[in-house]
Design a protein that fits this description.
mainly alpha; 0% strand
């Protein structure tokens, strides 16, 4: 499969959750709690695509899937789009775009504070994901984009904090993030070791 076809296929996959949301609203209506449903679904898919983007580097280095390297950016941007939609639903349908209410919610509810922290980091990473920014920042770009793990951690904590009953989905997402972070640290340590530098 060519790189352009692979990218197109990946983009199509990332659009499927949004298409599913649209079809469900069209055929089934908004449901009893449409704001909660839209908020949760968009947030969960934002987190899932973030984890998939983080899985690209371990897959490339451990399994030799070098073809997957360009997909990290695509999946990361998809994650940002779903997280932005998650924020938009909250700010619009929950807060009515009232700046005072939004600021009060951010300051008074810790899980909202964590969510805004995660979004702010993802916004910075999305803006600096272009070739122009990569060239402009040089080696600093790699250090900056390691903040994605901080954003992921904040997102997981945000997820845990807002759940009222079943914690299993948040636990699964948290474990996946922990495994990906541990794998990344082990790979980095192996590259720094004398044996890693000889291989």
């Amino acid at each position: 499969m060519s790189r352009s076809l692979l990218q197109a296929f990946t983009v199509a996959i990332t659009l499927l959750p949004a298409l599913g949301i649209g079809l469900r609203l069209f055929f089934e209506g908004p449901g009893p709690e449409p704001v909660d449903d839209l908020t949760h679904v968009s947030g969960e898919w934002g987190l899932r695509f973030l984890l998939l983007s983080l899985a690209v580097t371990p897959a490339r280095r451990l399994l030799g899937w070098h073809w997957a390297a360009p997909l990290r950016r695509t999946l990361g941007l998809a994650s940002f789009c779903y997280v932005a939609a998650h924020l938009l639903v909250w700010a619009w349908l929950d807060m009515g775009f009232d700046p005072g209410a939004i600021l009060e919610d951010i300051l008074e509810r810790p899980y909202i504070t964590l969510g805004m922290g995660a979004f702010s980091l993802l916004l910075v990473l999305a803006v600096t994901s272009t070739r122009a920014w990569i060239k402009r920042l040089g080696a600093r770009w790699i250090k900056l984009h390691k903040l994605v793990y901080v954003a992921g951690t904040l997102a997981i904590l945000h997820y845990f904090w807002l759940i009222k009953a079943d914690y299993r989905p948040a636990i699964v997402h948290g474990l996946i993030l922990a495994v990906l972070l541990a794998t990344r640290l082990l790979l980095a340590r192996r590259r720094r070791s004398p044996r890693g530098s000889e291989s």
